[in-house]
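notes to self, project folder thing:

trying the whole complex as one job this time. last attempt i did each chain seperately and stitching them together was a nightmare. two parts in total, labels are on each line so i dont mix them up again. if this works i'll redo the older ones the same way
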Amino acid sequence: MSILKIRKPDDFHLHLRQGDEMGQYARETAASFARALIMPNTLPPVIDPPGLFSYKAAIEREAPGLEALMAFKLLPNMNPLIVTEMKKAGALIGKLYPAGATTNAEDGISSYEQIRDLLSAMEEAGMVLSIHGEHPEAPVLEREISYLGELEKIIRDFPRLKIVLEHLSCRESISFIEEMPDHIAGTVTTHHLLYTLDDLMGGALKPHLFCKPVVKKEEDRAALAQAVCSGHPKLFYGSDSAPHPKNKKEFSSCSAGAFSATVALPLLAELFEREGALEQLESFTSRIGAEFYGLPLNTSSITLKKESWKVPSLIGGSVPLCAGEMMTWKVMK
Amino acid sequence: MSILKIRKPDDFHLHLRQGDEMGQYARETAASFARALIMPNTLPPVIDPPGLFSYKAAIEREAPGLEALMAFKLLPNMNPLIVTEMKKAGALIGKLYPAGATTNAEDGISSYEQIRDLLSAMEEAGMVLSIHGEHPEAPVLEREISYLGELEKIIRDFPRLKIVLEHLSCRESISFIEEMPDHIAGTVTTHHLLYTLDDLMGGALKPHLFCKPVVKKEEDRAALAQAVCSGHPKLFYGSDSAPHPKNKKEFSSCSAGAFSATVALPLLAELFEREGALEQLESFTSRIGAEFYGLPLNTSSITLKKESWKVPSLIGGSVPLCAGEMMTWKVMK
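result (full assembly):
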């Protein structure tokens, strides 16, 4: 197959940052996605309606054609009344970052016990809880598995709360999601579908593949690929594309985040094709997530063509995933 | 204790590189060590007497007071006659790099079957075989364990060959060394005694802690520390200090190697003190290795003092381990 036309995808996990480069990052996503769920761990974080409105407006002004779905960040002492306010303002999720788990998460949540009232209000309001599921005190490769116990308690204590476990990185998380009720789902990134610790540090160390959760073993990657390529009904796409300026990545203390927006669809098409599952790509990128969130499916479409192109070495000051490499699929304008 | 006087140490695994910066790297080692075993994976590699003589002379000219113990690199098609030549030239070891295992090892050994005659000649000549024990095809965290099977065959086929397994990084290697005869020993680096994957990538990614073999889990680190602090008779110090220019480390494709020479003794003193084992430090750094190699013990001594100092941010164009951090022990001049 040399032409692939699918319903326009959504990216249900995206970092766009702030400042001068945000516009370019947003346009990179707009080239492939109709909607993107914008993560709120900015500085300052998105925690109130004015912050949400202004960030959404700035994004959509910079990237016409991209609908910014908005999120707010859960903080330990937040008033539960914020939930209805944020819902009215259009927030799709409240995002739980365990304290210290990733970029700008120092002010996150140590235990769900800290935010029982908030979670209860979210359950009442039908607001989705989105979780960076890593236990920051655990050894780095076991943080996601270590978080599943906490997640199980949240599910038990808030049985009607819709939850998305973000950026699954290991086999155990897939099994966990499968065992849970239908209102518990997961997102999967491009890089966790394609890379392992061997890519990150088996040869030279590759800072542009460094993200949280870190990529894991081949059996984890293969299990994720197998799950999404077989049309898993509870896993959908969230890129976790997370640009950092080149000098914050190629640095003695390298920030976590893989900037994948530009190459996301070409890489996914290549993977699904290799797995003989191109017919499943559209569900993963354009249907399952929208249905989970109760959003209408996008009506526009996007066309990918088998045409080789070279990934730029720098986009908006950040080094994209696969910088300088050749892609076999290309998103047509 | 605020003053620590020990027999001057030896570093039985050191990379000094070539070119302009080599002198400064050598002097960093000379400040703490009487002798250092210089690794031969230079470009071109040390593979003959003239190469050995000129490298040794260059090092000792640049760093008076440091005795350079020399090595040569084993290549797949090497004539076994080289062994007696290199022995006569003063080489202490022949170094086996599995092909592709680390920096400048593309021309290494795929299987010991390739160099049976060479190993046989080494066994006859009493030349020590030094091994970078990683199986490069295995997943990055399992490469050392995966190599132990190959090592076992070498030991079986060459029962009198003295062997050093370099830079042990995991528990299983300690047990392996313990089960083998006394002429099979291991070296341990500073960084594998102090750091884990959590230091490397638990927070930000730290390229200056990236080395091969990569640092492992806390249980591995703790087992190594426990072994050397209890005076393990078959484990001795080899820093594997391996400077790379800052721009090759803080880079999209970061070279493997931790430049530890400058902070080696202060860090070791701090570790052994913390473990209540300061009295074992001298054996680890200044006796066990020399005895294994049949070298006289150094007669000079070195004094460390409890005095805080700040590690420079750059030495000879390379970023040292613990750059910018405070040390509690200082090597006195």
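what i see at first glance: The CA atoms of residues 111 and 230 of chain A lie 35 Å apart.
need to look closer tmrw
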